[in-house]
Specification:
Blueprint lengths: L13 E11 L6 H16 E9 L4 H9 L5 E5 H9 L15 E16 L15 E3 L6 H13 L8 E3 L3 H9 L5 E5 L5 H10 L2 E3 L4 H9 L4 E5 L11 E13 L4 H12 L2 H5 L10 H4 L10 H10 L3
Parallel strand pairs: 1-2, 1-3, 5-6, 5-7
Antiparallel strand pairs: 3-10, 4-7, 4-8, 4-10, 9-10
Helix pairs in contact: 1-8, 5-6, 8-11
Length: 314
């Protein structure tokens, strides 16, 4: 990983000096990994000399910290983690000596509903039913664990509110559900998702409604949350839409990353957005205007701004 001054050629395909972009994503079963792979495919296909790799990670918090430390050039981060880090709120208050002022936004991607999946034979049908049950809360460092903590705070829960509070990563929780080790799992993820599909196919798992006055208050008080609906019919045995709330996936970089590199990456995605949208079903509804305005708490990187101004998006 290195920062090299880059020269953009005025041609249909951007040309830059050889360098590397490493993108921190998430579980290989999650959509973040697909986001990173999709960006890298477009960068390497349409930007000469710029190499890109997407690596699996524990998730949003890990990616934000890695970009802050310049360990990764790019991170895929939930909009709530993005907001709290840059504005030094929530659990980021614990790290008073760490500054995220160097974080810059590039664009947002798909919406990510807070998803609760339960064994059908558990009797769990609503969010409130999770109390006293065996639940996987998500692995430390992941966006799903951070969002679940927010939900727990809103509901007045602690890990002791559950018969078992698991910390399994996303890649392991579906099988744990099917094997009966847990009764429910949470996931902040775009849909359709392979891990959710695995649980619904193998053990007839059921999507659970996430609604009520506590959720209404969360959405009203936090600009990075919005109501979302998981469509019916995309998973076996789940024919009806399910109401919940959620965040957006965002792409962040360090302010130190070369502006020409960020310009080239942004251009590769937006100039070939139709190709990107075909890479994964969760990307189908992406809209350029929303991608540069929703879920972005940190200022836009100068390289991204240059492209958006040229494109007439700003």
């Amino acid at each position: 990983m290195c920062g090299i001054g880059l020269l953009l050629a005025a041609s249909a395909s951007s040309t830059v000096a050889a360098t590397d972009i490493v993108i921190g994503t998430g579980s290989v079963f999650g959509v973040y990994f697909q986001v990173g792979r999709g960006i890298c495919r477009l960068v390497e296909r349409h930007t000469e000399g710029l190499e890109c790799s997407a690596v699996p990670t524990p998730g949003s918090r890990f990616n934000m910290d890695s970009v802050q430390l310049n360990a990764f050039e790019v991170g895929i981060v939930q909009s709530d983690v993005h907001y709290k880090a840059y504005n030094k709120t929530g659990d980021f208050l614990e790290f008073a000596d760490v500054s995220y002022d160097n974080i810059r936004s590039v664009f947002s991607v798909h919406g990510e509903p807070f998803t609760v999946l339960a064994r059908r034979d558990s009797g769990i049908r609503t969010l409130a039913d999770l109390a006293g049950r065996r639940v996987n809360l998500g692995n430390p460092g992941s966006g799903q664990r951070a969002t679940m903590q927010v939900v727990m705070d809103a509901m007045g829960w602690t890990p002791k509110s559950f018969a078992f509070a698991g910390s399994l990563p996303a890649a392991q929780q579906s099988l744990a559900l099917c094997h009966g080790q847990i009764e429910a799992m949470v996931y902040v993820v775009g849909h359709p998702n392979k891990s959710i599909q695995k649980a619904t196919d193998l053990c007839d798992a059921l999507l659970v409604r996430v609604e009520g006055p506590e959720i209404d208050l969360l959405v009203a008080e936090n600009p990075y949350y919005s109501y979302m609906t998981i469509p019916g019919g995309i998973y076996r045995g789940n024919g009806k839409p399910v109401n919940t709330f959620g965040v957006r996936a965002t792409v962040v970089v360090s302010a130190d990353l070369d502006a020409d590199t960020v310009y080239a990456m942004t251009r590769a995605v937006f100039e070939h957005l139709d190709q990107f949208k075909k890479m994964y079903p969760a990307f189908d509804a992406l809209d350029p205007k929303r991608m540069i305005s929703e879920g972005l708490a940190a200022p836009l990187h100068a390289g991204a701004i240059r492209y958006y101004v040229e494109r007439g998006l700003m």
